[in-house]
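[job 4471] stage=fold_predict status=RUNNING
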Amino acid sequence: MKVSVTFLLFLPMMLFSQTNFEKAEKLFNQEKYTEAKPIFESIFKENPNQLKTIEYLGDIASNLKDWDKAAFYYEKLKTLKPNEADYYFKYGGALGMKAQTGGKWVAIRLIGAMKGAFEKALVLNPNHIQARWAMIEYYLQLPAFAGGSERKAQRYSNELFKLSPVDGYLSKAHIDEYFKRYISAEKNYIKAIEVGGSKNSYHRLAELYRDKLHQPEKALRVLQAYQEKIKS
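[job 4471] inference complete, writing structure tokens
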């Protein structure tokens, strides 16, 4: 009887918390991040170890470009559940954005932790596609004297091919575009469209035509081709 009474006493609190979570989750899915944030923060205060709430707070901080807060929440996630690859990936991503916006000395300080987080994600989940994309970007953006290398970026691109041919072609095109090999990038984007036909593939090719090759007519034709594809 005591157990039942205790359960009944806490039931309204549980239902209230659940209702708040659902409300905040709905706001998040509607991209109303500033409205969802205080509700999730209230839930977090009541239960600081609820993984999904912490992840939402980290994602909100990321969308609001508050990289310190994002890193704080993602670090807490990987501490609470150290075998979850996505938490390491998100933590590394937050550190990467913090490094990108914080200047040279901040970047130097964070390089090791960022790389380590992405590598840990790949250890925990060898099929993690996004972590490989992150490592490609890491080796492209890092200066050569600090370990940046096209060869290493290509290695992760080759691994992507085995997991997802579309991502493989897109990553090859991205590397080509970074080094201003625009004709080669064009060929790889076209192959990505042929293999998968994703919205991202069409848009990346259109952006290449518009921004790098200065061929707005071709960019428009690519976008029109995508619109025709999704209608059929």
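[job 4471] summary: The mean pLDDT is 91.
[job 4471] exit 0
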